[in-house]
Each structure stands twice: as C-alpha cells, then as structure tokens.
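Sample intake — Gamma-butyrobetaine hydroxylase
Collected from: marine metagenome
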Amino acid sequence: GLRIMINKDESVEITWKNGETTLLPNLWLRDNCACDVCRNTQTTEKLFQLAQVDVNLMPETVDLIEDELHLLWPDGHRSVYDGSAIRALTIPQTTHLRLWSSEFRPQQFDYGKFTHNDSIAVDAIENFLSTGTILLTNAPTTESLEYLTPRLGPLRETVFGRIHNVVVDSTGYNVASTNLELPPHTDLSSYSWPPSAQALHMLVNETEHGESIIVDGFAVATQFRNAHPNWFDRLCYTPVPFRIFDDNNETFATQPIIQLDTGGQIAGVRYSNQTMQPMNPARTGLTEFYRAYHEFSTRITSDQAKAIFRLEGGQILLVAGHRVLHARKAFSANANRHLQDAYFEHDNIRNHLTVIQRR
C-alpha cells in the first residue's frame, strides 16, 4: 500500500505502490483541501484563501487510512485527500501530437455525419487535436460555416469581418485577394493572440491550378530545434513585428516566431512573410536572428514540408491556427474560384469534445 513520511522541509512524502515518491508541500496540501468549507460544493471553486494561514504551516497529525491521506491542521481544520486523485495529478495530461510532412493528407470526415453524429465528431476532433488538421467532405456549396458552431464553438470575429470571402478582388487588402501564389503562413500574425483555429470552405473551384498547401509548423520547428538549437532559441525570444491593415482597420503585434509553453514544448508558430514588418536594424543579435530566420524559412517553404492537394467545392479544411501553415498555388485571374473562411478557438473545440464525451 501507500506509505507516508512527514519531512522537516515543509512537506509530506508519499510513497506509491510502485516505489515512486512524491513530495507534497504543506501549503499545497492546505490550499487543495476539497472539503465543503474550503470549496464550493456546487461549483467546486476554491473558497479557501492561502493568505489565511502561516507560510510555515505544518500539520499536527498525518494519517493514512485506506489510501486516503488525513491531516489535522493547527487551527483544528481537518483535510482528507484521495490518494488516487493525487497520483493522477502527477501524470502529465498531454495530447499525442502526430507530426507530418509532404506525404501527409488530412483525414476526411463526412460533413453531415460530423455535424449530426457524436461518435464521428469525437473521432474527427481527436484527429484534429493530434494532427492539427482535418477535411470535411460533402459540405454544402453555399455559405454554411455558421453551422459548424455546435461542434467547434462560436466563430472568432476580427476587425476584418466574421466570414471572409476569398475571391480575386482588385480592391482587396492582401495577397489572398489576388490570383498570385500565396506562400505558407499563419493568419492574423498581427494579433497579440491570433485565432487558434481556422475553417477554409471551398464553395467553387473551377480552375486547373490553385492547389492548396499545408505545412506542419510543429514538425518543421521540431526538426529545426534538433538541427540548430541555438538558432531555435533565437526565434523563441526575438520579438518580430507584424502588421495587417486596410482603409478602416489597423492591427499590429510584436511577438516571437516560435512560442514555447511553460514546459519548454513548442506551443505555437507565428509565420507570415507577407505581413512581417522591418525590425530595428540596431537591435543586438539581428544578424544571427536573420541566419536563424533564413534557415527556418528555407525549411518551412521546402517541398519536403508541403502537403499539396486540391480542395474541391463542398470541402472544408480545418487547421490549427497556431500550428498549421496554409498556402495555395497561383491560378488564372479569370478562374471561378470562391473560398470562404472563418476563425474558431482551439479551447472551444477541446471543450466541445469534452462535452460530447460526457453525454
């Protein structure tokens, strides 16, 4: 069974059945008491305030009763902790990421089944969270991105609109509104927090060219990190300015190209050659930054990184906005090609997965 030991270094040591040990700081234990005095039983939100106790708090007694930890505190308060619940907290909860390159193709899911069948939706969203992209087929060829909200959560509206029509437009504010090649990029890098998911819905694609391209930014960044760790670090902490604007709007953000989470894992790639702005030329280390940026750009735009396929009318490509870069090849200026896109948020998509699984 479990074993416990009270340490003089402000903690309780618990030994698990497999021999592993975990140190539980006294303040952590007091802060995480789950009784109905310390937490609201309806919402499970914490009521206890850590500042109410002394920083050098020590339990009066510690007992282990049938895999439950029982503590008595100096003020007479009693706390009970489930050993299995504590153990579960020591196991990292991470989504398995499947990295990919040019041979990859997004998993296809029928639009109607995705929107109406919970088990299909679970499979699709789990695939999206793992690979960063899925393809919905047999979707309407009329405006219908709003119908995805029961599965993906509310649309993320930006100053440039709620649903965007991507057609050749001589008055458009960016290269997407031309028939030119659109290089791999992440959208709205000029936002402090760019949308973390994007749905690209092809309504009509009557052209021989204009193939769609996606790149796994996490895969490229991982390979880059292994090959050039110092350059990788340079892209993680050097702030880069991005700007997107039109006659009525102005957006600007200064952020690194690669973002890490608190555990040092790759959490985001912000890459947009067309919206990146000139950096301060007097900035220390700029030459080294550009060497790193050059190598990263070479990898992002390489044939080995690009998954190329044709997005047909009635297909919706869903991409993780902080991971998967998207692009397209050039096409004829008079071609009948109409794409709509809208933004969602990764957190809301994950939430809907949890909600469906609880049913």
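Post-analysis note: The radius of gyration is 25 Å.
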